[in-house]
Amino acid sequence: MRVLALDTSTSAVQAALVDLDDDEQFLISFRREINARGHVEKLAPFIEGCLDDAGKRPKDVDAVVAGIGPGPYTGLRVGMVTAAAFADGAGVPVYGVCSLDGIGGNTRGRALAATDARRKEIYWAVYEDGVREGEPQVCRPAELPDTGADYAIGEGASKYAGELAVPAEAEPVYPDLVKLVELAAPRLLAGAAGERLTPMYLRRPDAQPAAS
Amino acid sequence: MNNDSSGSAEPVVMGIETSCDETGVGIVRGHELLADAVASSVEEHARFGGVVPEVASRAHLEAMVPTVQRALDDAGLTLADLDGIAVTAGPGLAGALMVGVGAAKAYSLATGVPLYGVNHLSAHIAVDTLENGPIPEPAIGLLVSGGHSTIMMVEDLAGKVTQLGASIDDAAGEAFDKVARLLGLPFPGGPYIDRAAKEGDRAFVRFPRGLSAAKDQEHHRYDFSFSGLKTAVARWIEARRLDGEDVPVNDVAAAFQEAVCDVLTRKAILAAKEHGVDTILLGGGVAANSRLRALATERAEQAGITLRYPRPKLCTDNGAMVAALGSHLVAAGVSPSRFDFPANSSMDVEIVSLADRL
Ligand SMILES: [Zn+2]
């Protein structure tokens, strides 16, 4: 089964083709650029590039997997609408996976995965041997509760390393598209119905009701 | 073209529009409207008294694919029947535009149907072809909405459109919203002001006509300004209340609306006359205003100018207008856009489509 995987929940604009066998995933082609404002320009050409590299055409894609955040909304939405529209256009199902799981899912021990939520905040979740505990949250780095994590990874961790109570990886880590496909594999292999993708916003829109 | 062997080459084009608070998907064949599906988030914005960009963007993402499916169902077509996919690339709200642009690129990529990133303003002009047929060129376009108040010269709808004038501050539609609020009328203000004004006296008080003084004729001959008008209405209402008197809502609405329509139509007619153009196209959400239509009709007639406008539903933002422009571009043989174009919130009027350029 050939899967198009996309994630735009961080400043990494990412696309990949991943082959899924029963319990194995193979990365076939991959495009990534760290460009926080480039999602809408870069993503479609990246998908084209991934298909070209693999010598494949859009109709060779059997399913689409997309990171659904949490992530800064404007960029996140580009990836999600691209995934949904590509799937609709190609007549294949689309599945959503929490983008943070693409980071935390690869960790061992007790880890804090954190991405940059802008406005001096981070999106975060705690992972025990790669399994997330609870729902992702958003807060200022200094306001993190005691998570008991041994270390922190992700763009939010490296950016705010100085404010975190746990040691952070110096290099930012971005959601791993192969991991996202692995996490969606049970649904993919079961031929589950495609999903209506709903972003993990975690914040309400900023707006004040008009005073009349 | 996906036509039968009859040889007629009327392009079938889907248009996607997400520049503000309407998720619009329209489908046309040549000048024929096949579907016009719109999902609006206007009610979600009402309690904020204006369009909240983040609320609009969230609604676009939710509505995008279902609205495309609805448009295709309404038209009785599949994506494989399309000769082109057109999308508003700008101007508009950046985050909102990106949802439509992202979707259009993905549909084009998945189906192989050529993509056209187009200008929202030219699309407002093109929509008239769905009702009244091909546009005589040159023509003057008067676009009035919550986002724009623009006089355009359309020499070639497929590529040569220039701006003669525009609002230097608020768009006319914004002024309607703000004055409606002052009068205690709901959002969006246009339809409510229009209704109230029908019961009011247009000459009740004379509100200022922005940029209409002799000194403005050199630098702002075809430009508009509505923020002074809004302030004048606010001051008038305040003074009235300080005097302990009731505010005659219908009369104020009528007098305000008259000031807006007077200056819009006067300048559009002037532009047509001075450029030797005999057709004016009226478009944008405010073009649904009954007084604007009546006054424009009256003055165009006096000036010997043909006035064209589509039905109100096609004046507001919708996908049909984008499809109409796309269909015109396909028929004119304009090159499709590359997949790397951005959503451009301040896209220049003169860029009709992003063919072969960035
Ligand atoms: Zn508009």
Automatic annotation (TrEMBL), chain A:
GO cellular component entries: cytosol
Domain of life: Bacteria
Pfam family, one: TsaD
Domain Gcp-like: 33-144
GO terms classed as biological process: tRNA threonylcarbamoyladenosine modification
InterPro entries for this protein: ATPase_NBD, Gcp-like_dom, T6A_TsaB
Family matches, as SUPFAM superfamilies: Actin-like ATPase domain (SSF53067)
NCBIfam families: T6A_YeaZ
Protein name as catalogued: tRNA threonylcarbamoyl adenosine modification protein YeaZ
Species for this entry: Glycomyces harbinensis
TrEMBL record, chain B:
Residues annotated for Fe cation binding in this entry: 120, 124, 317
Broad class of where this protein is predominantly found: cytoplasm
Cofactor note: Binds 1 Fe(2+) ion per subunit.
Cofactor: Fe(2+)
Compartment(s): Cytoplasm
Binding site residues for substrate: 143-147, 177, 190, 194, 289
Keywords of this entry: Acyltransferase, Cytoplasm, Iron, Metal-binding, Transferase, tRNA processing
EC number(s) recorded for this UniProt protein: 2.3.1.234
Catalysed reactions listed for this entry: L-threonylcarbamoyladenylate + adenosine(37) in tRNA = N(6)-L-threonylcarbamoyladenosine(37) in tRNA + AMP + H(+)
InterPro entries assigned to the protein according to its UniProt record, in alphabetical order: ATPase_NBD, Gcp-like_dom, KAE1/TsaD, TsaD
An MF annotation (GO) of this entry: iron ion binding
Segments forming domain Gcp-like: 32-323
GO CC terms, sorted: cytoplasm
A single GO BP: tRNA threonylcarbamoyladenosine modification
Protein function: Required for the formation of a threonylcarbamoyl group on adenosine at position 37 (t(6)A37) in tRNAs that read codons beginning with adenine. Is involved in the transfer of the threonylcarbamoyl moiety of threonylcarbamoyl-AMP (TC-AMP) to the N6 group of A37, together with TsaE and TsaB. TsaD likely plays a direct catalytic role in this reaction.
PANTHER family linked: TRNA N6-ADENOSINE THREONYLCARBAMOYLTRANSFERASE, TRNA N6-ADENOSINE THREONYLCARBAMOYLTRANSFERASE, MITOCHONDRIAL
Similarity field: Belongs to the KAE1 / TsaD family.
Entry protein name: tRNA N6-adenosine threonylcarbamoyltransferase
Classification of source organism: Bacteria, Bacillati, Actinomycetota, Actinomycetes, Glycomycetales
